[in-house]
Each structure stands twice: as structure tokens, then as C-alpha cells.
């Protein structure tokens, strides 16, 4: 609660201390990228994954959420402006470091980093993806809306032939992954048929986020995801395993396998500027994933098999 009170106070101070930007400035400003650039000079123990996930929030809120993932042994905080000792007793109570770092503007010498900072992998990939999209705007973002819409309409017009599986491990072939001008897998979302014929799983993937492409998975950055959420840049991985019925040994093995998949998908999503959420059917499954990695964004869907 004290962290939230401090973050709220700093947001208020920011509003009071900053003059209203002109319309042109507001149009050119990208808070997400500004937050990523601001965070890039700090040492993060998780490679900056929490920062990428929260980058669209206001800076004090991002700091509140990700403060625990900083490498505190390499940081020194100095209240050079006297703001944290005067403005808020709550700020002093939760810690000088948080208050100084979450301030609307960090004064020179307020935050000292010991040693050389290597930009967190997730932050670097997100910034590189942003630069790539703006270097070739015709291949990214809203400028691709017509192209995506036409593909979506074409996919809906063409009847999907039901393939005959050759076995339990059969999956429909993935079409060639589109690439950008650098030869890297494109960040453009490409709908592809759901992998396999697991109807309960596919129904959950279509309805719960809800899926922008019902009946389809989506390829982003060369990686297949179960759904792209309608209206937001969030990719989903859906799990409908009967996790609660597994033995302890099988649960451990299942979590190990899922973490390897999640890491690959999470990196691809972050590199293309997307959020990433894992949907699971039960609270026990969520608890097991968060115990293995507390930074995951896991939601209980309640989907049944």
C-alpha cells in the first residue's frame, strides 16, 4: 500500500511540475519507448522482462511493479533535491531508492550505477523491434492494417480442409514465415490454422482472450501463439491440461516443459512489442508456474476439457 501511495504522489507531482505539451509534442511522444530507454541504463536481474511487460504504464507505476527486479547491489540512491524526505512520509518509509527512482524527473547524481550496464536482453529486443518498425513503416503497425485485413478476409473466404492426421503428434504444416528486409522473422501477425484437433483447447483460445482470429493460431516473429487478443497487442498461450490430476513428478516435468516453451514465446512477443499472457484452467496450475517464475503473467481461464 505504501508503494502505491508513493507512486500516486509522484504521478501527482509529475502533473503539477510539467507544463502541458503542445499537440505536436503529444503526437510525437511515445511513453512506452521513453520508459524502455529510461530503464535501459539500469541493471535488471531478469533481463528487463518486467520492464517490457509494464512499459506502457506511467514510469512510477512501472518502478513500483519492477523495483524488486533491480540489481540493488549495483545501485546507489541520493536524494539530491530533498524531495523524498520532505514531500512524503510514505515515500521515506518504503525506501529512499524507490522514491528517488520513481520521481518524475531523476536529478543528476540521484541514481549512481556501479559498473558497466549491459542493456537487458528483453529491453534491447523491444527497442530494436521499435526501430525496425519505424525504419520500414510499410511493414509494421497500423500501416499494415489493410494487408492484415485482406489476409484475414481471404482466410475466412477459403474453406479450410480438415487434414487427415498421421498420428497423435501430427500438426498442420506451418506456412513459410514472412521476413522483413533484414531477413528476420516478421512481427506482422499472420493467422494460421489451430495446431492439432484439440477442440476444448481451441475453443478456449478463441473465446477467452477473445481471439482476434477465431479458429486460428497466429505467427509473430516466427513463433506460433494460440491467440492474439482483440483490441490490444497481447499474445496468449492457452493451457487446458488437467494439471490438478497429475502426480507431483508429472507436474514437475510438465512445468519444466512449459517453461522452455514460454521462454521462447515470451522472447518473441517482447521483441515484437507485444504483451504475453498464459491462460491456465486451474489455480493450482497458475500457482505452479508462478512458483517457478514469479514474473510470468498467468490468468485462470476456468476452461474445461
TrEMBL record:
| Domain of life the protein comes from | Bacteria
Asked whether the UniProt record includes Signal among its keywords, one would answer yes
Renumbered to this chain, region (Disordered) spans 141-175
From which residue to which does the signal peptide run?
1-20
Ordered alphabetically, the record's keywords are: Signal
Q: Does the keyword Signal apply?
A: yes
PROSITE patterns cross-referenced by the UniProt entry: PROKAR_LIPOPROTEIN
Bias kind Basic and acidic residues: ranges:
149-163
Q: What is this protein called?
A: DUF6310 domain-containing protein
Species this chain originates from? Corallococcus carmarthensis
